[in-house]
Amino acid sequence: MREQDIQSKIMLALSEAGSLIFRNNTGTGWVGRAERITSHRYAKVAPGDVVVRAARPLHAGLCVGSSDLIGVTPVTVTPDMVGSTIGVFTAAEVKSKTGRPTKEQSNFINRISSAGGFAGIARSPDDALLLVSRV
Known about the structure:
This protein is of the alpha+beta class. It has two domains: 3-25 and 62-131, 3-Layer(aba) Sandwich (Trna Endonuclease, Chain: A, domain 1), CATH 3.40.1350; 28-60, no CATH class. The protein contains three helices and six strands. A four-stranded mixed β-sheet has the order 1-4-5-6. A hairpin with an 8-residue loop joins strand 4 and strand 5 (85-94). The chain is elongated, with a radius of gyration of 20 Å.
């Protein structure tokens, strides 16, 4: 099964379990003044291409190594704050059966976990549900 398919199932399972989960797209793109090419006046571009003028990089996502899925999982605390609900930062790095996390992804997971968040590798919806049930 593709990671994208696993990810969709994990998002659904975590949402049904009460977590507020978002896809954390990471990468770099270019932004600026976009100009759609309508004629052959440029040698290396064709009609329909888009040229970005005054281009500058746009970095998306939290940071290098941040997990595929991030969000908040509600947790009811006890006993001194009985009845109060807090949100616990949640991060799931989605991998296929054979996928391995990068050093940066492992570091991100460890930092979130050590700060009290729910974080880990999820290869299935059941793995993801185990991440958020560690209370």
